[in-house]
Design a protein that fits this description.
By secondary structure, this protein is α+β, with helices and mostly antiparallel strands. 32% of the residues lie in helices and 26% in strands. A hairpin with a 5-residue loop joins strand 4 and strand 5. The N and C termini lie far apart (41 Å).
């Protein structure tokens, strides 16, 4: 168990360094997108990265109000799944963007879901009220099974984009720019 915490600490430190502004602000944790050829022969970025994998929808988690959220209901939607915590500085920057994205694309098939890794429901509720969060905020405390299904989660924020076919197409480890998130949403919608 101690080795796991040491590895997690080293990884968290590395992720923290990735959030520092060195050159252009890009903390994409994935490789460059595949290139596809359109009908007219033009090149365009493919929606999913080369290392995409199937998302696991076989989970039911509780939200901050104690209600069950069945991940199976997200199938067929574009999902922005964000792992975060109330104490996370970069999360406090991203979450207001996610609130805007959820509202802006609610009729387009975008589902935004937040999973707090280590906060209790009452802390999540207070945070959601302060930041006016309208999308589902799930309690991840004690749900290492869910974290391992999408991870490993070495640090936060960590954001996964799942396409309508259920593939984890893109991943951001650490904070990403608003423009990067908007591009990922547009590419998948």
């Amino acid at each position: 168990m101690t080795v796991r915490w040491i590895i997690a600490g080293v990884a968290a430190s590395a992720l923290a360094l990735l959030t520092l502004p060195f050159g252009p602000m890009s903390t994409h944790a994935h490789a460059h997108a595949n290139v596809a050829v359109g009908e007219a022969g033009e090149t365009m970025a493919a929606a999913c990265d080369a290392d995409s994998r199937p998302a696991n929808f076989d989970f039911t988690l509780q939200d901050m109000h104690g209600q069950d959220v069945d991940f199976d209901t997200l199938k067929g939607k574009v999902v922005l799944l964000n792992f975060w915590a109330t104490w996370c500085g970069p999360c406090k920057i991203e979450i207001p963007w996610f609130v805007e994205f959820a509202e802006q694309h609610k009729d387009d098939g975008l589902a935004v879901v937040g999973l707090s890794l280590d906060d209790t429901a009452d802390k999540i509720q207070a945070f959601a009220e302060e930041y006016k969060v309208t999308y589902p905020m799930l309690v991840g405390l004690g749900r290492e099974d869910f974290q391992e299904a999408y991870g490993p989660i070495w640090g936060i924020p960590m954001t996964f984009f799942i396409d309508r076919e259920g593939a984890i197409c893109r991943t951001h480890a650490g904070i990403a720019s608003r423009n990067e998130f908007e591009k990922d949403i547009a590419d998948l919608l």
